[in-house]
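Worked example

This section walks through a single chain of length 301. The input is the sequence exactly as stored; nothing has been trimmed or padded.
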Amino acid sequence: MRIRRFASETVVRGGSVSSPRRPAPAARDVHFSVLEASDERLRVPSIVGCHTAFIELSVVLERGQMGLADDTKSGVDGVLKEAWEITIGSVVPETDDVTLKNGGRRVDATYLYADLAGSSKLAQTVKDEIVAKVIRSYLNAAARILKHHGGAIRSYDGDRVMAVFIGSSKNSSAAIAAFNLNWAVQKVIRGKLDTKWPQSLANYTMHHGVGIATGEALIVRAGVRNNNDLVSIGSAPNVAAKLSELRRTPDIYITSGVYDMLNGKAKLRNDGVSTIWSRQPNESVGGSPMGVYATDYWREP
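Given that input, the structure is written out below as tokens.
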């Protein structure tokens, strides 16, 4: 919207308000400025000599306010009216594998969320450059380990990463990846951080939470053109995310459904006899009780 001030009238593109006809004043006697503007009203002081007149104009921003409203309604209608075209997947899809308009991929998968603990508090007391290195060191180790064990990383969210495992050994692979990540936190990253920033991180010890759940999920693509991502819908991704947020002494939590499918390497320690997991009280997820096992066990890759 552009406003032009003339000697005899104030013109707003899309409409005009005329002032009484009078000779054009000298340029030095005319002052024009915008005092207040909003989506609905505009107040313009028109000063000629010592006389001040306030002209209040109702402005309809057709391309702004009304355009966005119509665009939003149309977008929601477009999402709701399209029938799903869902296929069954044997691999974790990439973003381009799922149609933004109405595509979906149903998978039987195991979800692992790994969440760095305490980073929000750390950011309040330590320089952001150091906090960024702490978070990146964790995510770097997590990404390498998860990918090595067959996890397809599909989300980074601040200091948290999510990986999807598919296949006959998906539960055991996810569990062993969690053991390796616990090793990286306890035996690698902590020591390196203490050595590099002994004073800045004197009161900080890295901890994390890992949640693993298994089941059927629907993977869809959400957002708008050129700005969208994959989203997993179902119990497994939701439960895994919730378990990763538990802040208790064991770092790794899995559902009983995951535990029941573990092979010997993921269920027993290296001696082949001692169990890795301990049964925990049921967790309530979405109002439903969930059987849970936990461990603080680590294993070097």
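What to look for: Confidence is low (pLDDT under 50) at residues 1-20, 25-63.
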